[in-house]
Amino acid sequence: MTIVIVDIEQFTHTCPNHPEGHPFDIRRTVVDVIPGGPCRAPVTVRCGAQTVQVPCHQHEPAKRQCGACRVIVTERTITTHHLDAEVAA
């Protein structure tokens, strides 16, 4: 299982259309990546008369991937900056 750790910084503001406020700029920074290792369940794919084995993450949807190929994104910190309507305009 590959684990990706990210920091999120979002900027919000209020405007006439959204008086309750909404984010208008979201930035994600990758802080660390912990690799999951090699694929444990490669998939055999036919290409014409030839057969090739590919890692399951290149062929299968996420729910059918092996534990080493799955990617988990963990949010370490979420920082919100609220800007006034005059500043954001």
Protein described:
It contains one helix and five strands; from the N terminus they run βββββα. The relative contact order is 0.35. A hairpin with a 2-residue loop joins β1 (2-15) and β2. The protein is elongated. The protein has one helix spanning 85-88; strands at 2-15, 18-34, 43-47, 50-54, 71-83. 4% of the residues lie in helices and 61% in strands. The chain starts with a strand and ends with a helix.
Alpha-carbon distance between the two ends: 43 Å
Helix amount, in percent?
under 10%
Oligomerization: single chain
Number of helices: 1
Question: How much is the radius of gyration in Å?
Answer: 21 Å
Low-confidence stretches: none
What is the string of helix and strand elements? EEEEEH
Would you tell me the structural class of the helices and strands? mainly beta
Mean pLDDT: 89
Strand order of the largest sheet: 2-1-5
Shape: elongated
How many domains in all?
Answer: 1
Instruction: Please state roughly what percent of the residues sit in beta strands, choosing from under 5%, 5-15%, 15-25%, 25-35%, 35-45% or over 45%.
Output: over 45%
Give descriptors for this structure.
89 residues; three-stranded mixed beta sheet; mainly beta; 1 helix
Question: Helices and strands in order, then pairings?
Answer:
Blueprint lengths: L1 E14 L2 E17 L8 E5 L2 E5 L16 E13 L1 H4 L1
Short account of what is shown:
The protein has 89 residues and is mainly β. The chain has one domain. It has one helix spanning 85-88, and strands at residues 2-15, 18-34, 43-47, 50-54, 71-83.
